[in-house]
Amino acid sequence: MRVDNISNRPHHRVHVVQGEHFVSGDPDTVMTTILGSCVAVCMTDPVRGVGGMNHFLLPEGRGGVADEDRRYGVNLMELLINDLLRLGARRERLQAKLFGGARMFDGLSDVGAGNAAFAEKFLRDEGIPIVGQSLGGTEARRVQYWPTTGRAQQKTVTDNADLATLRVKPPKVEAPVADGAVELF
Fold this sequence. Notes:
The structure is a single chain. With about 180 residues, the chain is of the alpha+beta class. About 20% of the residues lie in helices and about 35% in strands. It has four helices and eleven strands, in the order E-E-E-E-E-E-H-H-E-H-E-E-E-H-E. The chain has helices at about 65-70, 75-85, 110-125, 160-165; strands spanning about 1-5, 10-15, 20-25, 30-35, 40-45, 50-55, 95-100, 130-135, 140-145, 150-155, 180-185. The strands form two sheets. It has a six-stranded mixed beta sheet. The protein has a five-stranded mixed beta sheet with strand order 3-6-5-7-8, with helices on one face. Strand 7 (about 95-100), helix 3 (about 110-125) and strand 8 (about 130-135) form a beta-alpha-beta unit.
């Protein structure tokens, strides 16, 4: 267990990788991820004190293959919302923050822009307000999210070792974000 340098309370760090989502009502839980063109949606019900994060690779897939479908936004958005409702969240109180959607490679289609547009449209169609976002650009991001409060922090990734984790499944436990980060409240 690590100690959060802001509150000095021990916390449980959960790393959310491509195709995963995680929800929690534990105030000692911090969710993390590293994003390039992928998008993470961080969602909370601030009254109930529950929240979660997903990390999707593409907006939609061909469908039909359960293991493959987990990587897609349309499926992960539904899973995130449904699991938050199971924890006692109410749909009308949900709030979202969006991260990622970078253009990581010149000359290729802009997958990140498509992911970002999908997330914004999905949330708009569902009536879930976006209260913060950091989308687009050309740099990868490291995100930390405190699900019970909705607090989020991001830092751009410039370390080659971190960039390599975008191509290889990273470990489940990650070190805290260093100084120089941006916080969205």
